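Researcher: Let's do a round of design. I'm pasting the structure tokens now; please hold your answer until I've finished.
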């Protein structure tokens, strides 16, 4: 198809603003999915996405739409013309911002979707900032759309004013839709054709028959077909059977199949300039394909395009198999997940008590939870997951090393040194943006104080608290990443009755006043429960962790202690009584000494069990200890 009849766009929004529902209506109107196959969240193919009602992985889809515009002087538009609309549905949660940045590189336009009942949220600002960046073919077009206009709670005029202020646009540019009823969706498709620019081909390669430049924006792995790369064709054409090359890795391969997404993979004869589709590579080795690489032809290689920002893990956790024999399966499973989610990292490590496992880096707590849940469901693995942590830079004192200072990055709380060996500790801070109704400002200030946050101020020394329309305020704060991960999201939602939202980005490293807290079960340290906490909160954290574990741990055959240890001493303790059995229940008479002998024998057995017995901690206890608020 001619380039002028192709439109590539994405939907970006804060979480739960209706992206997937709007995409469903687009698929219905364009007849991309048959009516009998329609379901809610068509593009959310992962079971976890459907359960939680959120988008985790971006999903491209190709739609064909015949316009109903009246004849226009523009050669690009007219009554009855057929267009190819390539949509990439993106996640909305702050943990998956990297997915959004990848999708944006492949399109010329973006629908900025804003919920009419909630208005502009913090993550809306983050995704908007990414969308305003330059695309591959110039400035990206942003179409403001207000959703859920059928809701009785809709505040259409107020949210419209927020959008005008945010984008500095004409009020007439804003479109209004309902993903539930379909109202305004057909007009939105017409406006996409009208406003989003058609793809442009590089004139340098326009007349070269053997030229190809295809940008990889995602990929997945198939056991039978190997790595399948998702590409945006920028120049040239690719057909099945052609010999191709990854420009960065230098790996050669043959295109076993090319096709598009409808939304399932549909084979086609070729993909040409401006189109979005996939190429089956047949490669089954990890580390060959990478997001941001360029696919080109082996006989006429073209230099690679500029790539993407590299994802930076912010949360670390160690993952160990419950059964040491499952180590090889865990390694294989992580490798397969890496082929479908390039934003997490892992490397092998070993622990004296937990055995061999992997230290994994994630983009946030939700990302960590999703990956561990997929390991459990898709590969049937029973895992031990350590308490999530962040990176600390520790400078040891000279006496700890026999003279001379040494710096080291600590990824796991279990390896965090004792206080006596530390000279200085540095931790990462984040720059955050919070938007909430002004009546909750006092409550929010309290939780900011509890989480060691600092309000940003201007050059005149005044605190930055901006009015954000409809009686809402925007706060700019800096806080330790450690505190952001300590249940801050849930506390913000709770204290603002669900109306508060937050987005953040990494900032500088600062000196930290922290220590290691160990949890002992039956006098043995459980490395998975160790964590690094603020020295001011050590006693509170120890008490809450011990109480939580006491409530989660099944009763054992013998009495045991659960203890919290820091600063070289026990600071919290609870005793769990063992299960009891009436060993004299079968006796109905006789001398009392017979019963006394049996009870004494039971007592000795319990004592021996306490000395030699080991506590078996179920997998779900590790998962629940990892989560806050359970």
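Researcher: That's everything. Go ahead.
Model: Designed sequence:
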């Amino acid at each position: 198809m001619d380039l002028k009849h192709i439109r590539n766009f994405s939907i970006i929004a804060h979480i739960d603003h209706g992206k997937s529902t709007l995409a469903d209506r687009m698929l219905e109107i364009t007849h991309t999915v048959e009516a009998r196959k329609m379901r809610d969240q068509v593009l959310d193919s992962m079971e976890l996405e459907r359960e939680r009602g959120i988008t985790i992985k971006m999903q491209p889809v190709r739609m064909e739409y015949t316009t109903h515009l009246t004849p226009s002087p523009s050669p690009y538009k007219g009554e009855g013309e057929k267009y190819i609309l390539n949509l990439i549905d993106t996640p909305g949660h702050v943990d998956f911002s990297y997915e959004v940045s990848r999708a944006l590189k492949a399109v010329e336009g973006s629908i900025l979707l804003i919920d009419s009942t909630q208005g502009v949220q913090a993550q809306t600002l983050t995704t908007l900032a990414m969308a305003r960046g330059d695309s591959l073919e110039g400035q990206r077009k942003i179409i403001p759309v207000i959703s859920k206009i059928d809701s009785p709670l809709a505040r259409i005029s107020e949210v419209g004013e927020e959008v005008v202020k945010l984008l500095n646009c004409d009020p007439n540019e804003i479109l209004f839709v309902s993903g539930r009823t379909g109202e305004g969706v057909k007009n939105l498709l017409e406006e996409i054709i009208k406003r989003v620019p058609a793809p442009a081909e590089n004139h340098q390669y326009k007349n070269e028959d053997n030229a190809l430049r295809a940008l990889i924006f995602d990929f997945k792995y198939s056991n039978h077909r190997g790595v399948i790369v998702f590409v945006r064709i920028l120049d040239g054409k690719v057909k099945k059977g052609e010999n191709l090359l990854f420009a960065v890795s230098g790996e050669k391969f043959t295109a076993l199949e090319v096709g598009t997404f409808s939304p399932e993979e549909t084979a086609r004869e070729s993909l040409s300039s401006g189109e979005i589709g996939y190429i089956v590579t047949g490669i089954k080795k990890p580390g060959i394909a990478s997001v941001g690489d360029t696919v080109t032809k082996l006989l006429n290689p073209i230099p690679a395009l500029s790539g993407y920002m590299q994802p930076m893990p912010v949360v670390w956790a160690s993952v160990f198999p419950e059964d040491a024999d499952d180590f090889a399966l865990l390694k294989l499973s992580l490798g397969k997940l890496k082929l479908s989610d390039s934003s997490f990292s892992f490397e092998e490590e070993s622990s004296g008590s937990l055995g061999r496992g992997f230290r994994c880096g994630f983009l946030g707590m939700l990302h960590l939870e999703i990956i561990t849940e997929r390991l459990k469901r898709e590969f049937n693995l029973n895992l031990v997951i350590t308490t999530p942590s962040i990176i600390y830079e520790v400078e040891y004192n000279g006496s700890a090393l026999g003279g001379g200072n040494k710096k080291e990055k600590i990824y796991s709380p279990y390896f965090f040194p004792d206080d006596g060996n530390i000279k200085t500790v540095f931790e990462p801070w984040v720059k955050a943006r919070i938007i909430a109704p002004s009546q909750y400002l006092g409550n929010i200030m309290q939780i900011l104080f509890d989480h060691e946050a600092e309000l940003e101020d201007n050059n005149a020394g005044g605190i930055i608290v901006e009015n954000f329309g409809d009686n809402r305020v925007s706060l700019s704060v800096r806080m330790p990443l450690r505190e952001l991960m300590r249940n801050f999201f849930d506390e913000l939602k709770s204290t603002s009755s669900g109306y508060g939202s937050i987005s953040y980005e990494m900032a500088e490293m600062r000196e930290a006043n922290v220590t290691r807290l160990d949890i002992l079960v039956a006098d043995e340290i459980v490395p998975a429960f160790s964590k690094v906490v603020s020295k001011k909160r050590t006693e509170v954290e120890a008490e809450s962790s011990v109480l939580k574990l006491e409530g989660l741990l099944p009763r054992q055959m013998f009495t045991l202690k659960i203890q919290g240890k820091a600063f070289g001493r026990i600071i919290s303790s609870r005793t769990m009584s063992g299960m009891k059995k009436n060993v004299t229940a079968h006796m109905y008479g006789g001398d009392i000494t017979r019963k006394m002998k049996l009870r004494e024998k039971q007592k000795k057995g319990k004592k021996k069990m306490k000395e030699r017995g080991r506590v078996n901690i179920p997998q779900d206890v590790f998962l629940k200890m990892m989560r806050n608020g359970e």
